[in-house]
Amino acid sequence: MPFLSAAAAAACVVFLVTGALALQQPRPYPSYWLPHERDALLVFKQAITSDPAGILASWPERDDHHRHEQDCCRWRGVRCSNKTGHVLELDLRNVGLVGEISNSLLSLEHLQHLDLSMNNLEGSTGRVPEFLGSLENLRYLNLSGILFSGTVPPQLGNLSKLQYLDLSAMGDVRSTDVSWLTRLQFLLYLDLSWVNLSTVSDWPRVLNMIPSLKELHLSYCSLASANQSLTHLNFTGLEVLDLYNNDFEHSIESCWFWNIRNLKYLNLAGCSLYGRFPAALEQMTSLRVLDFSDNHGERKRNMTVNLKKLCKLEILNLQESRSYGDVTELFDKLPVCSSNKLKELHLGSNNLTGVFPNWMGQLTALVILDLRGNNISVPLPAFIGQLAALRTLDLSHNHLDGVITAEHFFNAKSLQYIDLSHNFLKIEISKEWQPPFRLSTAMFASCQLGPLFPAWLQWQVDIVYLDLSRTGIAGTLPQWFANTFSNAIDLDLSNNQINGVLPRNMDSMSLSYLHLGSNQLTSQIPPLPRNLTYLNMSMNSLSGPLPTDFGFPYLQVLSLFSNQITGYIPRSICKYRISVLELSNNNFSGKFPSFVQNCTALQVLDLAGNKFYGRLPPWIGNLKSIRFLRLRRNMFSGNISIDMTSLKCLQYLDIAHNGISGSLPRNLIGAMGSLESLDLSRNKLSGEIPESLSNLTFLSYMGLSYNNLAGRIPSGSQLDTLYSENPAMYTGNAGLCRPPLQKNCSRNDLSKKGHTEINEDHGQDFFYVGVECGFIVGLWVVFCTQLLKEGWRIAYFHLSDKVCDNLFVLMVVSSVFWQDLPRR
Ligand SMILES: *[C@@H]1O[C@H](CO)[C@@H](O)[C@H](O)[C@H]1NC(C)=O
Ligand SMILES: *[C@@H]1O[C@H](CO)[C@@H](O)[C@H](O)[C@H]1NC(C)=O
Ligand SMILES: *[C@@H]1O[C@H](CO)[C@@H](O)[C@H](O)[C@H]1NC(C)=O
Ligand SMILES: *[C@@H]1O[C@H](CO)[C@@H](O)[C@H](O)[C@H]1NC(C)=O
Ligand SMILES: *[C@@H]1O[C@H](CO)[C@@H](O)[C@H](O)[C@H]1NC(C)=O
Ligand SMILES: *[C@@H]1O[C@H](CO)[C@@H](O)[C@H](O)[C@H]1NC(C)=O
Ligand SMILES: *[C@@H]1O[C@H](CO)[C@@H](O)[C@H](O)[C@H]1NC(C)=O
Ligand SMILES: *[C@@H]1O[C@H](CO)[C@@H](O)[C@H](O)[C@H]1NC(C)=O
Ligand SMILES: *[C@@H]1O[C@H](CO)[C@@H](O)[C@H](O)[C@H]1NC(C)=O
Ligand SMILES: *[C@@H]1O[C@H](CO)[C@@H](O)[C@H](O)[C@H]1NC(C)=O
Ligand SMILES: *[C@@H]1O[C@H](CO)[C@@H](O)[C@H](O)[C@H]1NC(C)=O
Ligand SMILES: *[C@@H]1O[C@H](CO)[C@@H](O)[C@H](O)[C@H]1NC(C)=O
Question: Where are the domain boundaries for CATH 3.80.10.10 in the chain?
Answer without folding.
Answer: 30-121, 505-762
